Structures are given as structure tokens and as C-alpha cells.
């Protein structure tokens, strides 16, 4: 179980990440199935056709509903939702800090109320590891505090110190859980998360501290939460030299196609974001010529496929006019076709990035694509 | 283009109905794609896998949104929604009477306000034929008044007399439209609709009157709109001897699996109903052992497929526990999987009915299935 760096182009990396549920070709984009399903009526079986390599599920949501004990009883997430490839679960931390009500952070963990029914819940590093072990994901994320930007230096210093202490507890608890006979996936991997807001020196010191724990991968958290794209790129550039070369690197919750290309350029291997599915549900579709708002009147009688250069299930079979009609008529099929397209687009983007890295033409690809992909057409 | 009676078992009929868009094996159930899409995120391409033979679309809904002129410009419904098989369009009459506001019925047609934006619209026999010709469906339905039950004898007498006069106008207008070079489907078929509330003598006289017009098929309308199942069966039995033997017979808007078996027994060939998709969206699933309410707590940890005897995409891949979770978490995937299952169930029911008729064992099938299929389990 390890990351293998196949090739560099500048700081950009072409690699492979081996897991018990299959090998991931990197750079890769994880498709977000929050509550054990992709929003928009996409099943795990559809995901295979959409060239998805890794599905991401949310610990917080699944803990509340249907409960990780139920998923454990059903044999774990893979069996429950019918996905055979790698699954990454987040730690629950991000949702505890963004969704839950009445939260109190203490050294032992976080006390909060469920956003569904107000039920009082405690989650600390050990609980997060136990839940993720019950879910039996391929990769578990460490329980951290995701600091919103901007943040004060003082708060950031104390927060990341606690996040490091929590990480030590996460590692210890996962080792214990992976040693139990009753654990479904005893090869569960643990990724640590770098925090530190936009303070480069704090980010670097935190990265050095967590690298010492020799985890299975390292994530950059706390970006794309109030900061600008330039601040984000700056943080990645600052910490990259301190990230272990032989470990996979995951930029959490990012981002647009351009953000992804720019982050690959700066040495990132793994991504996740709700953007492709969320934007799709509002009629915003990514294409190889730029971003289309399909609700626009000009598509009402447009017989062309959404993207002539795409061979996703939507573009192979349906016209812009039909898809627009489905959106206007509030048909669920609009959501499904649009989400299929956007996920296929993101997964194909990663395929093209990998091919360019293989060919040593990634910088050319970046120069060509960045001006196009962010453009509204 | 004709109905061919292959075999009788009592009054029940096994037949074939030839159209320019393919031959329909009857008895058959039409799958309802109201606004040119099946509710629940099912595309025309999915319908093929669900063993659908005929898709039904709604004239009223499509006239309002996106407009039949737009669908005409896009080459007709087949091309617009990507369905290659036969399509039946209703006349719009039923929705004008049930959905539209401020309606006034006159000899020339109906004045009403759109239920979407209040826009004033007029629809008479000629307009309905023109809209359906623009949609370019395989089969157009005559514009009639669907009388709600119970109705007075006096109102029924005057209403069906007008419906007959409207039918003559529908036939004349369709002949004109089918003769135009600019018409997309110049082989469009026209079905007349029998009305007469629950008055057997009025139903019979109306059937005799409309049979004289020698149309491509005959529908029984105005049932399952306030009447009991026994009243419905009584009406079918009364008029069946007066329905042309060499024409296809369609019972509109019916019904449960048991209703369908009982109507086939009484000589009906064609059905449509929103029940399989609507019930699916509320977690009510038809199975070969009876009707399951999947929201029930007892399915929370049930690892079995929804129906062990079913090989639909839902039952092949997913457990009751997973499907229930998707419903509880309000995931769109719940709708899609459940609608897929229920449509597959209905289409398979028709397949079994046809096989039993082929084997001369339909009455045995009916005796065995009727007590099971209506049962809640």
C-alpha cells in the first residue's frame, strides 16, 4: 500500500497509489457521494461509466443517517452502496464546524448538536476513527479543525497545535482498530491534514511536525474556505518542499478545473469538490470550450450536444434544447444528465492531465487550457 | 398499420399492433413520460432496459412547456427525447379539465388559463390535433371531455354528444394534417375515446356511434376518476361486445396490477397509468409477493434485494437497506431506483400476461396472481 512517483514535470507529479481496493492513477479527482450516493440520481454502477476512480463519502452525514453502526452491520460502505473501488471518508470535522449547531471545542474533541434533529453528539479523534472504521473506507482522514479564513495568528497557533495532538490520537486509535478481528477493513489508511490558515511559516512548521508521524498520505486542508485562489496557490508553494515526496498529496475541497490544473502544477496528486455536481444541478456545465449556463434562452432550439468534444452519456444522446427543457420543466432527469456530464468532464480532465504528464507536455496543456476552461460562453 | 388479434382466451386477447415506429406486443402497458421525460430521472435510453414498448407523453404539458412549435422545430418528440419506439400523446383534454383554471366549455372547444402562468388558451379538436401533429407522436388521442364520476344522466347525454361531434372534427383535421408535406409523421394514427360515465346504455350507444368512424383504435375514457373498481369492470363488460374486434382497445389511466389483469380478462389490450412511477417516489414498491412500503423500519438492516424474483437494475444491484437509506436521506437516487423497479415490474407483468395468453394459461395466472399482487406485505 503505497504511493509510487512515476514521473515529474517540474513540481507536477504523475503517480500511482496502491490500495486494497485497487490502484489509483494520479493526479485523480474523487467524486463526492456525501450520504453514500452521488447527488443527482447517480449510482455506484453509473460511476464506473463516468471514469470515477475514487468515491468520497462523508463521515458526519453517515454517522447521523443511517448511522455507521448500521453500515458496519451491512458489511461496510463498499457493500452497502455497491462501489468496488477505493473510498475515502472525511473525518467529519469539516461538517461539525460548518453544519452542526451549538458546538464547543475542547481538548478531548467537539460537542455539537445534529443539524437534522438537534441531538447532542460528541466527536473527538477516537470517535472519528471508530466511525470511519465502521464505514470501512479505504482511506480515513484525521480529525482536525478546519479554520475559516481569515483567522488570527494567535487562534491559528493554538488550533494547529491541538490538531497535531489530535492526529497522534487518530494514529494510535486507527492502529488499535486495524488490529481488531472484528474490523472490516484492517488495511485502512490514514491521511494527516495540514492546517495553518494563510500563515506560511505556521503551515510549514505544521507540515514538518505531521510528516514525522509517517502517515499514508498528507492533505492540505483549510483552503478554499474564504481565501483567494492566489492565497491558496501561495500556501501550496510554501509547504510543497516540506511534503514527503513518497507520499500522496491531497488538496481538500478544491476546486474549479483551473484550480486543479494550477494545483497539479504545484505538486498536488488528489482532489475532491462538490462543484461539478452542485453546479450541474443549477444548469452550469463545464465544457472543453468553457462554462455554459444551459438555462440561457439561446439554447432553446439548439440541436447540438452540450459539448461536441464530449462522449459522456448526456452528450452522446441528448441535445442542448432537450436538456434545457428538462431544467425549465424541473424534471429530475435534468439533474442526472447534467451531473453525469460534469463528473465525466472532471474525470476526463484528470485523464488528460495524466496523459500530458506521461508525454512530458503538461506545461503546454496548462498554458493552452487555463485561458479556456474558466471562460463563460 | 393495424391491430392483429393473435389469440383469444375467453374475452382476453393476445395481439400485435403495427406502427411506423415498431410493432407493439399486446396486452401492453405504456410508460408515462409526461413532459418528454419519465419522472425519477429515467431517460428514453433507460426505458429500453426497462422493457418499455410505448412511451406516453402529455399534449397539455408539452404545449405549455416547451411548446409544441419548439418540438416540431427540433424534429418531433422521437428525436427530441431520443425514444425510437411508438409514442402515444393524449389529447390534452384530461389536463384541461383537471389542471387548468377558469375553464369554459363551448361547442368550439375549451377556453382555459394555464396552471403555470395563468395565460389564456383555447383548445378545441382542431388545436389538439395540430399540437399532436407538431409533436409527431405515433398515436394521437381524440379531444374529448372526461366526465368526472358520479355525473348526472342529463349532463352525460349532452357531453358525449359533443364528444362525438368533436371526434368527427378530430378525424377530419388529422386527415388534413397527415396530407401536408410539412407534417413530420404523416402516418399518425387516431384513437377515439368512449365516454358515458357509469351509464351502461349511454356507454354502449356512444361506442356504437364512434365505431362507425372506423378509427385506428378505441379507448375507454372516464374511468378510474371517482368510480369504484367494480363499476369500472361493469362498464368494460357492458361495452366490450360493441368494440370492434379488429381494433386495439385502450383503457385510459388504469391502474393497479390487479386492475390490469382484470381488464385484460375483460378484453382490453393497452394501458397507461402514473401509479408505478408516482408510488415509487413515495417508497411503495410492487413485488411478486405483494406491495412493500420500503420506508418501513423493518427494512433498515435488510440485506435482501427489494424483490428476490426481480432482475431490474435496482434489484440486481442494491439491498432494501440501501434503498431505504436513500429514501430517508432524500437522495434523488432513491427515486430513480424505485421508479426503475416499478416500471420494470409493470412491463414484466405485461410480458407474463402475454406469455400466459400464448400458453392458454391466462385464467390460471389470473387466479394465482390477483390474491397476491394487491396484498400489502
TrEMBL record, chains A, B:
Note on cofactor: Binds 1 zinc ion per subunit.
Cellular component GO terms, alphabetical: cytosol
Cofactor: Zn(2+)
Residues covered by region (RNA binding): 253-259
A GO molecular-function annotation: metal ion binding
Sites where the protein binds Zn(2+): 310, 312, 315, 341
Residues binding substrate: 90-94, 144, 195, 222
Catalytic activity: 7-aminomethyl-7-carbaguanine + guanosine(34) in tRNA = 7-aminomethyl-7-carbaguanosine(34) in tRNA + guanine
One example of a Gene Ontology biological process annotation: tRNA queuosine(34) biosynthetic process
Enzyme type, top EC level: transferase
Pathway: tRNA modification; tRNA-queuosine biosynthesis
Pfam families: TGT
Keywords: Glycosyltransferase, Metal-binding, Queuosine biosynthesis, Transferase, tRNA processing, Zinc
Job of this protein: Catalyzes the base-exchange of a guanine (G) residue with the queuine precursor 7-aminomethyl-7-deazaguanine (PreQ1) at position 34 (anticodon wobble position) in tRNAs with GU(N) anticodons (tRNA-Asp, -Asn, -His and -Tyr). Catalysis occurs through a double-displacement mechanism. The nucleophile active site attacks the C1' of nucleotide 34 to detach the guanine base from the RNA, forming a covalent enzyme-RNA intermediate. The proton acceptor active site deprotonates the incoming PreQ1, allowing a nucleophilic attack on the C1' of the ribose to form the product.
Binding partners and assembly: Homodimer. Within each dimer, one monomer is responsible for RNA recognition and catalysis, while the other monomer binds to the replacement base PreQ1.
Protein name: Queuine tRNA-ribosyltransferase
Record organism: Hydrogenoanaerobacterium saccharovorans
Lineage: Bacteria, Bacillati, Bacillota, Clostridia, Eubacteriales
Amino acid at each position: 500500500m503505497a504511493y509510487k512517483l512515476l514521473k515529474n514535470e517540474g513540481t507536477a507529479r504523475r503517480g500511482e497509489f496502491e490500495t486494497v481496493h485497487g490502484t489509483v492513477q494520479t493526479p485523480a479527482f474523487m467524486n463526492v457521494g456525501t450520504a453514500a450516493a452521488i447527488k443527482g440520481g447517480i449510482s455506484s454502477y453509473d460511476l464506473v461509466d463516468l471514469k470515477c476512480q475514487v468515491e468520497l463519502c462523508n463521515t458526519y452525514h453517515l454517522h447521523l443517517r443511517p448511522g455507521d453502526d448500521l453500515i458496519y452491520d451491512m458489511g461496510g460502505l463498499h457493500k452497502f452502496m455497491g462501489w468496488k473501488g477505493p473510498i475515502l471518508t472525511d473525518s467529519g470535522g469539516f461538517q461539525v464546524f460548518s453544519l452542526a449547531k451549538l458546538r464547543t471545542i475542547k481538548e478531548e474533541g467537539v460537542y455539537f448538536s445534529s443539524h437534522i434533529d438537534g441531538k447532542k453528539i460528541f466527536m473527538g479523534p477516537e470517535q472519528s476513527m471508530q466511525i470511519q472504521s465502521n464505514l470501512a473506507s479505504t482511506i480515513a482522514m484525521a480529525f482536525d479543525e478546519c479554520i475559516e479564513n481569515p483567522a488570527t495568528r494567535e487562534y491559528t497557533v493554538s488550533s494547529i497545535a491541538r490538531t497535531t495532538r489530535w492526529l497522534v490520537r487518530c494514529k494510535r486509535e486507527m492502529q488499535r482498530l486495524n488490529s481488531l478481528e472484528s474490523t472490516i477493513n484492517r488495511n485502512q489508511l490514514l491521511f494527516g491534514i495540514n492546517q495553518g490558515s494563510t500563515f506560511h511559516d505556521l503551515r510549514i512548521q505544521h507540515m514538518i511536525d505531521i510528516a514525522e508521524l509517517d502517515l499514508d498520505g498528507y492533505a492540505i486542508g483549510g483552503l478554499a474556505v474564504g481565501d483567494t485562489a492566489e492565497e491558496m496557490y501561495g500556501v501550496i508553494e510554501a509547504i510543497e518542499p516540506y511534503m514527503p515526496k513518497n507520499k500522496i498529496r491531497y488538496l481538500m475541497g478544491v476546486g474549479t478545473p483551473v484550480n486543479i490544473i494550477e494545483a497539479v502544477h504545484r505538486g498536488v496528486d488528489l482532489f475532491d469538490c462538490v462543484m461539478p455536481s452542485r453546479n450541474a444541478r443549477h444548469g452550469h456545465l463545464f465544457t472543453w470550450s468553457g462554462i455554459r449556463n444551459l438555462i440561457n434562452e439561446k439554447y432553446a432550439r439548439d440541436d447540438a450536444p452540450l459539448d461536441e468534444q464530449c462522449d459522456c452519456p448526456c452528450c452522446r444522446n441528448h441535445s442542448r434544447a432537450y436538456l434545457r427543457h428538462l431544467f425549465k420543466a424541473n424534471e429530475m432527469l435534468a439533474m442526472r444528465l447534467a451531473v453525469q456530464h460534469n463528473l465525466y468532464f472532471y474525470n476526463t480532465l484528470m485523464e488528460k492531465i495524466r496523459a500530458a504528464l506521461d508525454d512530458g507536455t503538461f506545461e503546454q496543456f496548462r498554458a493552452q487550457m487555463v485561458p479556456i476552461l474558466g471562460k463563460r460562453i
